[in-house]
Amino acid sequence: MSKRRTPALGTDRDAVPPTGEDSGHWAGGRMAPGLSLAECRPTRRRVWRNRRNSTLVLLAVGLTMIPVVLILYQITAKGIATMDWEFLTSSMPFSFRREGGGFLNGLVGTLIMVGLASVVSIPLGVLAAVYLVEYGKKNWLANLIRFFSDVMTGVPSVFVGLFVYTALVVQFGFGALMGAAALAIIMMPIIVRSTEEMLKLVPNELKDASYALGAAKWQTILRVILPSAAPGIVTGVMLAVARAAGETAPLILTALGSYQLTAKLWGAPISSLTLAIFDGARNPFAAGQARAWAGALELLIIVLVFTIVARVVASRSRISR
Amino acid sequence: MATATTLSAGRRGRKGAGRKGDSLFAIFAALSGVLILLVLAWMVVSTTGTALPVFSSQGISFITSSEWRPGDGQFGALAFIYGTIVTSVIALVIAVPLSLGVSLFLTEYSPKRVKGPIGYCVDLLAAVPSVIYGLWGVFVLLPIFLQPVADFLAKYLGFIPIFKGPASGLSYFGAGVILAVMVTPIITSLCREVFATVPDSDRHAAYALGATKWEMIRQAVLPRGRAGIVGATMLGLGRALGETIAVALLIGSAVRLDTSILRPGYSMAAVIANQFQEATGDHIRALVGVGVVLFVMTIIINMGARALVWRFNRV
Amino acid sequence: MIVKNTRGRFRVFVAVAFLVVLSASLVVGGCGGESDLPAAGSDTTAATGSDTTAGAGGGASLAAGLNGAGATFPEPLYVEWIGEFQAANPGATINYQGIGSGGGIEQFTKMTVDFGASDAPMKDEELAAAEAAGGASVLHIPTVFGAVVPAYNLEGVEELKLDPETLAGIFLGSIGTWNDPALVALNPDVELPDQAIQVVHRSDSSGTTSIFTGYLDQASAEWAEEVGKGKEVTWPVGIGGQGNDGVAAVVQQQAGSIGYVELSYATESGLPMVTLKNQAGNFVAPSLDSTSAAAVGVEFPEDLRFSASNSTGTEAYPIVGATWILVFDKMKDAAKVEVLKAWLTWSLNDGTWLAEELGYAPLSDELKALSLEKIGSISTF
Which positions in chain C touch A285 (Cβ < 8 Å)? Predict the structure, then answer.
């Protein structure tokens, strides 16, 4: 606190509170006996500092909003220019300097790999969260799993890709399954943690009622707990899916990328939307760059749709934080 | 549960199917949880095992030397470690003040109507994939911001070693700025949670004592959240360390250790992404080794951050 | 161990499972320590597009899939050749990946691809390794000549003249600004700004680098001493780009930069190119003609590994190199051999118009005859 003269006692009992920006902070018109309101008003320096810092805060907000606006605007503007039906439905021309073509090979690859990863990570993730909330609770194993799930969410995705490379690609070659494995490893801890939070919010009365009706624990979980936490779980899952759809680095190391439209699950490299955009970003040819922007728009739409729907589901549900 | 004893009595009276289903289900659930631990362990073992030949042949020079010449079998990753640290530091220097500002705004200053949209926009930033950040960074941010600012810094502050030219937007600086944009939403959302837990009574108390708004924040809100802020920063740091694509596109891909942040460099994640597709044999092992070093760094930072945030949450 | 209750038994189960997986991964990881690692351009099982389907369409008797990988230098041309050839022969699929000359030689030696491509002829050690791996001799088949041009990005400067010393100085970092006296002396009519020069080089192992540094090595004693030549060198300064396209992209993005790329990349990306002083003392702009002029009078040994740099021709562009397709003279798959020979023969005979369109100089008649002879000698085991 800045130094202040001790106000003299016994003066000015009925002073009117000062007007101005700080007047709202003063309690009523009467202060403790002996205190002068005028003397309690903050010094000009403090007022100035307050204003300055408020401005800085606003500046920070403004600065942070600029990239948001710019990114959304630029991608939409540049992407729309190239995005057309041909783009959405055809693959890369065999030479990236040629105009036309599209990222269908990437889109198909993303759909396949994210789909496979979801099929694996969603059930396993939800089950693991069920264990944490219903069975393990606070025991050593549950705490261990919680801690390391948190740790796993912070592992760089490129390292996950390296792991899948050394563990699987070495044996089986590049392919969609490998990419899906990497994505599943990335998705699972996210799903576990968010589902756990949602399951914790299910009221105990619901569970008790189910047990009172004679249901076994597993029946309670499957028929009562999970459905009631479903909106929250869906939110978490969709956010995880959006994250997986946007990953690039692990796919470089596991799916490798390809110009061809393929649906082979293993043994052959496969592209993804993100890989195609990455290649386009390093391209000097106008046609390649134009495709990259359109691809970015496509990816952004997919990711944002998932994210926004997830939030809508979360806000609509009765379970909220 | 008080009803447990009566329930289990009831259950025991029924057919054993419920109980068998229960144990089976319990085991499945537990195994799913344990799976995470197993995968993590496998991760560590598999990657370290693959990189071991390179670690043993290069010894400590793997992290102390910056001689990276795959053609000659020389693998010193110091340039990448340096680049990773430098870009992350630049990112934090920019992102932490910004994030604090935004989160303070959202919790203390903003009127209710504005809070939602702005918070939403910041969260949207978090959802944007990093390859899009990279694309945007190279074609938009670079010409309109990074290059002019870099040139400006080199021209007027070029006598300071870290700003020496020739300046390029494709440099530690460029990568650091894009990282800052990517990391800000994370730190912001965590700080928001931290600040929201400060009880209003604390705020009122500060006002009652005659504090201005800023003084209230500085005395009632920030001290309470200090551990949380540090934790949030460290989580942001962890994310910045591991970010690959956006950095690979903006860092300049030069295997060099440069004191100037305006010159091109390299980072651990970026070199893996860039060199992997044309690497073979020992080169790949060395890249895996670089990944292991990155993993260790990130894990330490993340565990520390989680410990801080956990402790904060429990208080 | 007698465990009394279900909880204890469960813990034991978990612990055992953990140890099992741990030791399994140690075993796998340990074994992985010795085995070869798959890399880009290698398909360990079926090759992409190599569905050796029957159904040779419309009279085409060629049906096989080929995989090749290597230099980005000729990639634009090879890709066009492949496109045209596949259009005429629907049964054949050829997949080419540009991963750099170094990568091409490696994949070829590992036999993960059917043919390699490189702008730097294989060194003796590389040759020995490949021949040991393939059990057959390696053939270097030159396809075209191409020019490596310094391309730059400098606002308002449409023409730039350089000589070997200044070019080396720029890439060494000793010439740091565009309005350096040495540059001004060579370009009296051009307004050179006071801007820092940003050098751009390759970040991957490259035959283009080999041609470029080979030229600088010959032309500048200082360069030979400080940097040397090769597919990869320790660059004193500069930003790295991945592949010819990566370098072109960086030059496009970075104002005031100069990099070296194959001619067609510069023309297709709209980058202005440097007019270089050749050995005869003339300033020559890179073009199809000056590249072809450089190809004249090149001496080649029997195995066709040669260098074409720094030609003495009066109209010759000084930084020119040939690019080779690398094949084994004996392969296992007869169908593949047929497709390979047909494609190469067609490209050398009928594909020259494509080459010229893209700025690559076709081989001289003599060299072409020798190449075709080598192609003809490819057979099966």
Answer: 245, 268-269
